[in-house]
Design goal:
The complex is a heterotrimer of chains A (312), B (354) and C (509).
Chain A lengths: L2 H6 L2 H26 L1 H26 L7 H15 L5 H24 L5 H20 L4 E2 L4 H8 L1 E2 L2 E2 H19 L1 H11 L1 H6 L4 H27 L1 E2 L7 H11 L11 H20 L4 H21 L2
Antiparallel strand pairs in A: 1-4, 2-3
Chain B lengths: L1 H28 L17 H5 L12 E8 L4 H16 L3 E8 L2 H13 L4 E4 L7 H9 L4 E4 L11 E4 L2 H15 L4 E7 L5 H14 L6 E8 L4 H14 L5 E4 L2 H13 L7 E6 L2 H9 L3 E6 L3 H15 L14 E3 L4 E2 L4 H4 L5
Parallel strand pairs in B: 1-2, 1-3, 3-4, 4-5, 5-11, 6-7, 6-8, 8-9, 9-10
Antiparallel strand pairs in B: 10-12
Helix pairs in contact in B: 3-11, 6-7, 8-9
Chain C lengths: L2 E12 L2 E12 L3 E5 L6 H8 L7 E6 L2 E2 L5 H6 L2 E4 L11 H5 L6 E2 L2 E2 L1 H14 L16 H14 L4 E5 L7 H16 L3 E5 L3 H7 L2 E6 L2 E8 L4 H9 L17 E10 L3 E9 L3 E6 L5 H8 L7 E6 L2 E3 L4 H6 L2 E4 L3 H5 L6 H6 L3 H4 L7 H14 L16 H14 L4 E5 L7 H16 L3 E5 L3 H7 L2 E6 L2 E7 L5 H8 L18
Parallel strand pairs in C: 3-10, 3-11, 6-9, 9-10, 15-20, 15-21, 18-19, 19-20
Antiparallel strand pairs in C: 1-2, 1-4, 4-5, 7-8, 11-12, 13-14, 13-16, 16-17, 21-22
Helix pairs in contact in C: 4-5, 14-15, 15-16
Classes of the chains: A mainly alpha (312), B alpha/beta (354), C alpha/beta (509).
Amino acid sequence: MTLDALRRMKVQELALPLVVVLLVVIGAVLKGTIFFSTANLWNVLLQASVAGTVAVGMTFVIATGGIDLAVGSVLAAAAIVGGHYFHGAGSAWFMAGTILAGAAAGAINGIAVAWLRIVPFVATLAMLAAARGIAQQISHQTPVGLYDLEALTRIGSQRVLGIPIPAIVFLVVVALGALVLNGTRYGRYVVAVGGNREAARIAGIRVRPIVFSVYVLVGVCTGIASVLQTGQLASASPVVGLGLELDAIAAVVIGGTSLAGGRCTMLGTFFGVLTFALIFNLLTLENVESQVQQILRGVIILGAVAVQRRGH
Amino acid sequence: MIRHKHAAVSGLALALALTLPITLPLWQTGCRKADPPKPGDGSARAEPAKTAAPPPAGAAGAKIKIAFSAPAADHGWTGAISVNAKKQGAKYDDVELSLTQAATAADQVSQLNTIMMQKPDVLVILPQDETVTPAALAAMKAGIPVINVDREFSDPAAQRAVIKGDNYGVGFQAGQYFAGQLHCKGNVVEIQGIAGISVTNQRTKGFADAIGQCKGGIKIIAQQPADFAPDKGLSVMQNILQAQPKIDAVYTHDDDMAQGVVQAIKNANRDKEMWLTGVGGSRAAMDQIKQGGLYRATFLYNPTMAASAVALARLLAKGQGLSDLTEPVIPSLIVMQAQGVFQDNVDRYMQIAF
Amino acid sequence: MTAILEVRGLVKVFPGVTALAGVDLDVEAGEVHCLVGQNGAGKSTLIKCVSGATPPTAGTIRLLGHDLVAGRPGAALSAGVATMYQELDLVPDLSVSANIFLGHERRIGPLLARRAMRRDATELLARLGHATLDPDAQVAELRPADRQLVSMARALSRDVRLLIMDEPSAILDPPEVDALFAVVRRLTAAGVGVIYISHRLDEIARIGDRITVLRDGKTVASNLPATTSPEQLVQRMIGRSFSEVFPERSDPHGDVVLQVRRLARRPDLAETSFEVRSGEILGVGGLVGAGRTELLRAIAGLDPVDGGEVLVAGRVVPRGRPDLAVAAGIGVAPEERKSQGLWLDWDQVHNVTICDLPRLGRGPFTDAAAEHRAAAAQLRSLAVRPDDPLRLASELSGGNQQKVVLARWLLHASAVLLLDEPTRGVDVGAKADVYRVIAELAARGLAIVMVSSELAELVGFCDRILVMREGAVVAELRGGRATEEMILRHALRAEPPPEPPPESPRASP
């Protein structure tokens, strides 16, 4: 980021990083040694990894003015598809199959939105229902044990330089997401389509392929998240990912990305994910009742969006 | 104005289209002859059972129509309920089982209203919640006996018989086990189901009452809900592991959810430090109990109760009692034993794992 | 005559901006008082103060002899002030009568008195001379002119003493403007005072009684007679002389660049064929809805067509593919600049480079420095003000926004520019600047097609003029020889005038 860009940054863009800093300070005061241990800080990132990886893809979708409500169901369905059809072929096949299944679900959403012109909310609502059903149908409502996939379970249990592997994957995905969104032609087109669809058409941008692609992208991210999740659980379950779509959307929105499209920030999404993970971590460390966490999440969503509105 | 008229017409058409497949079978069946009740069809419960005395349809050669209404399979346990009911129904040549699943209580009530029109011989209901009671009561009044599974109706007249698990007992048995294994001393973590529902409250209370005998020797050092979901169990436990340096055992409310907790502990390489228990009786849990190690026990809250409910419904329709009992009719209340499954007895229960 | 409105020394200061710096205005019963001024002169703020939507910082507003309580729209409403805003504030999904009585519905107890409202709506519309408009019709289905009527009926449904009309004719065709004026005269005959705001100075002479000119938030001339000439008005509005609005152009035309052959999109556009040469400016005139915008969109591949083809420099552009049209060198500056032409919350650099990212980047990546260099060069060549390429598009004036759109196509080295109402919403002062830029682009060899509703613009600026009516080109006129009247006659399906004799491609001035 150049100095010039920093100079042009507005107060509301700094609000969320401040919240994160504040949460870290609160954590340090309440639970000094435990909270501030590197193990716990990596643990926070580990916890953020599944929803965070999905949120990276979600940022692209929301940047086009769309939404994907299906990610939670697709997370479960992708793992079940992978676990059911690719289990025997080994870890690499399982991962490829799971990510591919996520991409396929995203492609269906993308076709529905871009070419069949179904409103994203409705198209992905349909997928939300269907993917969950598929997950339960294929699995006969029983989790698929994947303990024998060593490479996969290693993703969930091992660390590199003390960092849990899912956390590393998440950081890499965020960095790639930021690079694509801010530094490539494709990213510019995504924002252009979201900011002003007709202007994008007139400027010669092919709108439908762009719209289609963001749903595939979030599908791939969901597939990756699904691998991270199954790696940690060592099994594929049809009941995981309930409410994941709301976690991801909330993180994207408090990060400063506009649901109307055209205004988005990957850094904001990162801080948004981190904020929720920190709250969850802190309150569980303190053994605070879960309803307090719900209230706090609500307050933060409202507060963050209100601060952003002030700038417009 | 025009729009509203249009909407009304299309709404009507939709309603017709929806009811057609339901009403058609009615016409095809025509009027079924209602056999008079057999003598000796007495009842353990006085009033409601009499009004709902079923015709012993099995004797007449016609199939016994049992309608099973269950919640949507949004979880391993509810999924297994439906599977068990279907399997049991298929075992009998003289039973025709129809299964419906409802995502909400409101859905279930409207489904029940539709089912009643088809006049099944017995209605088996696992209600979403208490608001389903009036629908069950209406069925009883219409002469269709109702067997309640697991979640008793608020009005006793709404059911002929209840077969249910024992949430308090599950918690209490688990608490007894913890007290014994830990010699009334240690740090325990409790991973609950969905916060605020009666299942969770009962399982928590039973556990607390049982470890009360240790007079504070067993400390519950962390207690968090994880919504019966394995991914939530994973992340809740990951955090708790950070906060608690010394954990002796973990009491979880559910086998599915426990899988996430198990993985969190394993991934943190702390599986030698503690052990845990589940509730339910899932295949994965029993496999791990058999292997030995982290997963020590589960306490049955078995979806086989759905299969038993179908069996009871059949007996009720035939006017028979349980074979080894003296009474010629089925009992009105059956509570499943919250049986503990451990490494030494797991083989006995393996066949009913779900 | 009685004074309805007396405004004295009105001042309104927003943070950082003084919108009004001492405005006086008098409106008497039964008069049409015209308010003119460039965009940003303070007209809108003045209206907001008078209608009570914004409290003034200083000064007095007296309505019928009583001081207006500041900042309370309700107070102004009950004192008899009604406002028709530029953006019609109707609810499209409601019926005509429901819109007329929106906010003060007739009731019987808690219930809506629909029948009474229908009856009263019909009566109000009859008072406006349009008794035939169905009070049950949905506003969404009405023509713009009829919507305007509904808006006026709504104003009249309260006991109105002062009616403020903000650019009521902007979306109307000449015959509809005539009907509007007839309605306005009925109102003034009944003693209503009218404040009439318009950029069309010729209208002011027709409808107005007196004129007040605003410039930079001050009254620079008040109570001018309506007979004041447009030149004098413009001079007062912009503070300088009107002498040369249209730049001198006498460039020779080059080869044919754009060929349109039998292009059709029924029912909006009948088969249309024409050619445009390098350096030529082809004007397209006609009424609103005559198919002019549809023609431009069809050429650019933005709407599907039934048949025909478009060639740029002799090569066919595939149909219905705006991306290939852009690649072939066709650039569009749409009429709806803000909603279709620009990304308002982007800086100018990104707005300019959007079509040239492959060329300005490396592989899939963008190159901020290269983009900045390329965009800044184009923006400077068009003299966009302020000279800060990182300024957001939303912060620019209409004329400068238009230049940003043009800079994009310049950077893309487009061969053909399709301009839809390029000076709409542009200040009188800045219009000359936009003309200068367009002339310059033509001089660089671009072929330009320019849709315009301003007859003076077509006649004074274009080399050739196509006149469209009901989706078809009905006349082709030579720029130097055409008159505003000729264009209007063709556009209105009047008796065809005798064709002018064949002539040289352009009569040089």
